[in-house]
């Protein structure tokens, strides 16, 4: 005998599945292809970087894939009279509003010969955690939709009450109804898994998996790489040789000794030293995200002890691979390896 509770749950979850499908289709942005050999210029905001390619959402809400090459000129607009300042490809971070010009290739990408942006847009993009903000915004949207689904579920529960009144008339079809309810329950379990994903806020515009990581340590008030640090970085560089679509994230830190502003400057020097070594090891600059100097924040050990301060004088280097690229070659959750300097420098 079908209970009111079973019918209510089945009807509500089936409605959730339909509404989730409709809303998912509604938020997709079309990808705009640039005809091969045709010149074009676009203006929009960088959504994400996949190695040499970056996705730019244009003002008409379409997405254009812009290919960055060694000959691409990256320029900061400095004003009408002062001209333009040449920048590295590392400045092209998600959230930055840019103007890109070039020609289309056979894949429909815009092969950029020039990318420009202004100083205000650059400062704004650097002040935002570009890996967290898109996740929070997307999760907030999905949480709003979850509230709408809950309202729809209440309406469907009311309809379930009407269906219960008809069960006496449909007793001869009970077996068929039970089979249908079982199918709806299976779909409902899948829908519930989707809601759990929304609540845990793991939705991201740029879904990357950590493939390898190295932590290198520095002597007191120094930004010079030690022999152990060079060895760990060499191991990490070797692991990039067989990867496609990877990016390298570099973050420098200090202990809490001294002035906070000086510590931030020292952490930037340490991060820059690592970036230069990676370039010396043939890691293309365009694959390195803008290095961050985070000063004495994010301590991993007690700053009141000598050993703790040694552990805080560090640079963390992480290799990230976009899941859309990495999943074709290996499991998304498999990591190539993690390296850490065994003994922090004195």
Write up what this structure looks like.
The chain contains eight helices and twelve strands. The chain is 39% helix and 23% strand. It has helices at 4-27, 119-126, 133-165, 174-199, 227-239, 260-280, 306-312, 323-326; strands spanning 39-50, 53-58, 63-67, 73-77, 84-86, 97-104, 110-118, 208-217, 246-252, 292-293, 314-322, 337-340. With 346 residues, it is an alpha/beta fold. Mean pLDDT is 77; it is low at 10-28, 129-133, 197-205 and 328-338. It has three domains: 4-25 and 133-199; 39-116, Nucleic acid-binding proteins (OB fold (Dihydrolipoamide Acetyltransferase, E2P)); 208-340, 60s Ribosomal Protein L30, Chain: A (2-Layer Sandwich). α1 (4-27) runs antiparallel to α3 and α1 packs across α4.
Overview features:
346 residues; alpha/beta; OB fold (Dihydrolipoamide Acetyltransferase, E2P); 60s Ribosomal Protein L30, Chain: A; 3 domains; five-stranded mixed β-barrel; five-stranded mixed sheet; 8 helices; 12 strands; extended
Percent range for β-strand residues: 15-25%
How confident overall, as mean pLDDT?
A: 77
SSE class: alpha/beta
Give the helix level as a range of percent: 25-40%
Q: Tell me the name of the CATH class of the largest domain.
A: Alpha Beta
């Amino acid at each position: 005998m079908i209970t009111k509770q079973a019918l209510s749950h089945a009807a509500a979850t089936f409605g959730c599945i339909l509404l989730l499908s409709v809303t998912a289709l509604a938020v997709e942005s079309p990808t705009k292809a640039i005809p091969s050999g045709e010149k074009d210029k676009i203006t929009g905001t960088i959504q994400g970087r996949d190695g040499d390619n970056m996705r730019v959402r244009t003002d008409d809400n379409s997405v254009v894939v812009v290919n960055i090459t060694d000959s691409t000129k990256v320029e900061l607009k400095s004003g009408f009279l002062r001209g333009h300042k040449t920048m590295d490809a590392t400045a092209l971070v998600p959230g930055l509003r840019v103007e890109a010009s070039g020609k289309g290739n056979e894949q429909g990408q815009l092969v950029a010969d020039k990318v420009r942006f202004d100083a205000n847009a650059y400062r704004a993009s650097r002040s935002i955690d570009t890996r967290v903000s898109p996740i929070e915004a997307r999760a907030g949207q999905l949480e709003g939709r979850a509230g709408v689904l809950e309202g729809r579920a209440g309406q469907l529960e009311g309809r379930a009450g009407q269906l219960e009144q008809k069960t006496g008339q449909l007793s001869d079809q009970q077996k068929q109804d039970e089979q249908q309810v079982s199918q709806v329950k299976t779909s409902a379990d899948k829908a519930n898994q989707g809601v759990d994903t929304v609540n845990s806020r793991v939705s991201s515009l740029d879904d990357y998996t950590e493939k390898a990581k190295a932590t290198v340590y520095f002597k007191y008030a120094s930004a010079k790489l030690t022999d152990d640090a060079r060895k760990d970085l060499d191991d990490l560089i070797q692991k990039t040789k067989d990867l496609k679509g990877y990016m390298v994230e570099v973050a420098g830190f200090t202990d809490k000794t001294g002035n906070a502003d000086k510590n931030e400057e020292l952490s930037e020097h340490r991060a820059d030293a690592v970036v230069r070594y990676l370039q010396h090891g043939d890691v293309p600059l365009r694959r390195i995200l803008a290095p961050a100097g985070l000063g004495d924040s994010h301590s991993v050990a007690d700053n009141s002890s000598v050993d703790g301060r040694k552990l805080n004088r560090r640079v963390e280097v992480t290799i990230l691979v976009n899941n859309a690229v990495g999943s074709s070659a290996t499991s998304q959750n498999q990591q190539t390896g993690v390296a850490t300097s065994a003994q922090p420098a004195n």
